[in-house]
């Protein structure tokens, strides 16, 4: 099979693409998670600013990811804010998924029993320490299946960035297929790579589930 | 943004809507079919379907659309852009829908089946008259949720050159040199479409809850 040997010769393109996707995915989800947690923390206050955050979160949930990337990459230069494709894609990934993470955590915060928080307040926890030490760890452990789902969605959303010319896995497959004319083999390889990454994520999720069960959080 | 630009935007919205509409309507039925076949547990076929669902759920729509559009001619299948987009979106959404239908199957109570058989219904009549109506009610919120996911994912079809609601903003800004207004208007249209679906989902949830399922 000569096409498959061509694939081996073009391995550098694919390895670079894979690294590009992984870097983009890991960095952006980490930042998005932190930003999402900060948003939920700010929502605790319940003032006008948290209303703004709520509106922003709901806004993001009704938008496709690509339109946000378009806004940052094609739209903002009109206002004089210019950035390269990678930065624009990275920032849009962070903003978009932070909104989803915040929404998942907020949903769990709403159904959290009030007694625990009151007990912590009675022990003299400040609002900041109360959130980071008591509330957030529980929210994260309880919502981990949903968070894991969102991670897989975030992985798939990185592929959209190929449209705004970010160098990642799908873009690598596209450039390899146009150079060597091996569309089937190139894309089969890339689909398998995406599949493997999401299988790893699912395994990590299962491992996290065991951790949660050990801490007595599973009552489903 | 003049009238011409708005007309182009609406045309893009229409392209997105009809392509997604076809993909959704085939995908829901196909998902039910896949779930039914999986429930029958036919050896070999079952493993293939598990593999298909796992792969389709892990593959980004962009990659899948490109794969279908570029590699179909290698197998002697001639697809135009719209067909490739519909096939890709259908196969993608059917995998998610199959899991939703299967969850409805698995949570269906056995006593109803026994009661229906005791009343003299055949398996087919039981499925059509008793099981399916309840399954539709209980899985409708999930299905509508998946529809809004598909519409959020549909800009992926722009990658093979279909002028959908996202891509059309490039066309407009190529004429006006002002990219911001068309993108914001496209975002507004997406918000409108997805808000309608979210509203439908809330209604479906209310109905499912009323039937206590």
From TrEMBL, chain A:
Gene Ontology molecular function, alphabetical: transmembrane transporter activity
Name of one Pfam family that matches: BPD_transp_1
SUPFAM superfamilies, per the entry: MetI-like
Domain ABC transmembrane type-1: 18-205
Keywords (A to Z) from UniProt: Amino-acid transport, Cell membrane, Membrane, Transmembrane, Transmembrane helix, Transport
Lineage: superkingdom: Bacteria
GO cellular component: ATP-binding cassette (ABC) transporter complex
Biological processes annotated in GO: amino acid transport
Annotated InterPro entries: AA_ABC_transptr_permease_3TM, ArtM/GltK/GlnP/TcyL/YhdX-like, MetI-like, MetI-like_sf
Membrane topology: Multi-pass membrane protein
Subcellular locations according to the entry: Cell inner membrane; Cell membrane
Transmembrane segments: 14-39, 51-73, 85-102, 186-205
Main location: membrane
UniProt family annotation: Belongs to the binding-protein-dependent transport system permease family. HisMQ subfamily.
Name under which the protein is recorded: Cysteine ABC transporter
From TrEMBL, chain B:
UniProt keyword terms in alphabetical order: Amino-acid transport, Cell membrane, Membrane, Transmembrane, Transmembrane helix, Transport
GO MF term set: L-cystine transmembrane transporter activity
CC terms in the record's Gene Ontology section: ATP-binding cassette (ABC) transporter complex
TM region positions: 16-37, 49-72, 84-103, 115-132, 180-200
Protein's cellular compartments: Cell inner membrane; Cell membrane
UniProt KW tRNA-binding keyword: no
PROSITE patterns membership: ABC_TM1 (PS50928)
InterPro entries cross-referenced by the UniProt entry: AA_ABC_transptr_permease_3TM (IPR010065), ArtM/GltK/GlnP/TcyL/YhdX-like (IPR043429), MetI-like (IPR000515), MetI-like_sf (IPR035906)
Main location (coarse class): membrane
CDD domains: TM_PBP2
ABC transmembrane type-1 domain span: 13-201
Membrane topology field: Multi-pass membrane protein
Superkingdom to which the source organism belongs: Bacteria
Family: Belongs to the binding-protein-dependent transport system permease family. HisMQ subfamily.
Protein name as it appears in the record: Amino acid ABC transporter
Organism of this sequence: Pseudomonas turukhanskensis
């Amino acid at each position: 099979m000569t096409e498959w040997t061509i694939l081996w010769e073009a391995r550098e393109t694919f390895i670079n693409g894979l690294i590009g996707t992984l870097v983009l995915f890991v960095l952006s989800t980490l930042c998005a998670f932190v930003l999402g947690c900060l948003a939920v923390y700010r929502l605790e206050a319940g003032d006008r600013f948290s209303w703004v955050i709520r509106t922003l979160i709901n806004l993001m949930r009704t938008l496709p990811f690509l339109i946000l990337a378009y806004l940052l990459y094609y739209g903002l230069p009109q206002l004089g804010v210019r950035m390269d494709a990678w930065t624009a894609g990275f920032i849009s990934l962070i903003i978009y998924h932070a909104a989803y993470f915040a929404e998942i955590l907020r949903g769990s915060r709403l159904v959290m029993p009030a007694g625990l928080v009151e007990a912590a307040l009675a022990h003299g926890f400040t609002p900041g320490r109360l959130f980071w030490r008591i509330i957030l760890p529980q929210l994260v452990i309880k919502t981990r299946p949903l968070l894991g789902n969102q991670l897989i969605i975030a992985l798939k959303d990185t592929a959209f960035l190929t449209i705004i010319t970010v160098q990642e896995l799908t873009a690598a497959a596209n450039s390899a297929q146009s150079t060597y004319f091996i569309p089937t083999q190139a894309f089969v390889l890339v689909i398998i790579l995406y599949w493997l990454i999401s299988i790893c994520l699912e395994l990590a999720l299962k491992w996290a589930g065991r951790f949660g069960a050990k801490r007595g959080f599973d009552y489903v | 943004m003049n009238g011409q630009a708005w007309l182009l935007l609406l045309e893009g919205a229409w392209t997105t809507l009809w392509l997604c509409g076809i993909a959704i309507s085939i995908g829901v039925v196909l998902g039910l079919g896949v779930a039914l076949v999986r429930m029958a547990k036919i050896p070999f076929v079952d493993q293939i379907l598990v593999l298909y669902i796992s792969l389709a759920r892990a593959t980004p729509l962009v990659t899948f659309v490109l794969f279908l559009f570029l590699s179909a001619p290698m197998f002697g299948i001639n697809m135009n852009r719209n067909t490739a987009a519909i096939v890709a979106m259908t196969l993608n959404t059917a995998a998610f829908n199959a899991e939703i239908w299967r969850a409805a199957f698995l949570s269906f109570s056995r006593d109803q089946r026994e009661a229906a058989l005791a009343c003299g219904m055949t398996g087919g009549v039981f499925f059509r008259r008793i099981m399916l109506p309840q399954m539709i009610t209980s899985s409708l919120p999930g299905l509508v949720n998946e529809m809004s996911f598909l519409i959020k994912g549909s800009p992926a079809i722009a990658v093979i050159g279909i002028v959908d609601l996202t891509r059309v903003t490039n066309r407009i800004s190529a004429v006006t040199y002002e990219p911001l207004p068309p993108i914001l208007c496209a975002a507004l249209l997406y918000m409108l479409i997805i808000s309608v679906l979210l509203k439908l989902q809330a209604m479906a949830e209310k109905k499912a809850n009323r039937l206590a399922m």
